[in-house]
Predict the 3D structure of the following.
Amino acid sequence: MPTSARLRALMANASWIRKMFEEGNRLRAELGPERVFDFSLGNPDLEPPPQLAAELQRLVQDDRRGAHAYMPNTGYPEVREAVAAHLRRLHGQHFTREHVVMTVGAAGALNCVLKAILEPGDEVLVFVPYFPEYRFYIDNHDGVTVPVETDAGFGLDLAEVERHLSPRTRAAILCSPNNPTGRIYDRASLQGLAELLQRQEARGGRPIYLIADEPYRQIIYDDVELPSIFALHPAAIVCTSHSKDLAIPGERIGYVAINPEFSGVAALVDGLAFSNRILGYVNAPALMQRLVAQLQEVTVDPQIYQRRRDLLVEGLRAAGWPVEAPQGSFYLFPRTPLADDVRFVELLQQQAVLVVPGAGFGRPGHVRIAYCVPEAVIRGSLPGFAAAVAEARQ
């Protein structure tokens, strides 16, 4: 065989998200783009804020020598300092550039972190439902994914967390606002999680990292608080990107931020720099680093996504589907009218409406609906949603 058995096994369980996106391409070719309502991929349709175009224009006209040369594997010092200044304002802690490593998006950030911290067989907790690529990132670095069930409202279940802790536990990855649920974990549950990790650290004698995947941090509704994990756990790391807050997912620019209170910062940064290099990312692109350095306080308007959320939630409820409104991100993750979520997804496909089955996120009986699409797509999809719900109930 031309590929390894290990890779073939991973590919056989590859992401439902991409499968549904490819189905959307097929339907668009068959029916025409205007007749297909695709909610499969979390690909923001908003254009970047106008400040981005202005800054990009300035940068491409900059004729300084060495503007496109190699830089340190951690990123340009001045860019890291700009990020650190933003983190100081956001979290109220003394971040400097020595706590920041620029990366090729959040995926690059997570892979660099996992490469730096995992021994073969180390366990990483993920909270169900979870972004399916986490499994592959953890496997990339010989770790073991340990799914931990959440409660009925997708909140952290601390008893379940405690049950899954072991001497091999090395990290926990959480995403808040969450992909796929839109849930924001509250301060009390995060504090409880941190205390459990710290007790396990004391037993095992090595750090257990709390890793927050935060590309949706700026997309929050209804004034819900998003607590800072840095105030709760010394071995805290944020991995993020500007894919969602600046609507530039194709540019793949992000960073790792390490808690200034963590005693192992210097060694961890060295490990991240080396991981950046040997994983082939080498470092985040020069132009994109300089671009985002000037845009740390700029973001897309989250009210646009909130209007879309409200339009979709109202329409689905009118169709007889009692969905809950998410607190952030741009996803709904409702329970399906059929227990078989894959079958319900097929009913929606018959209406040219594309969503992702919850089975792809470790929680069958649900679907993920990515509403980062124009309002016209949402309005056009509602008859199809209503027809599929009616058929499911028959």
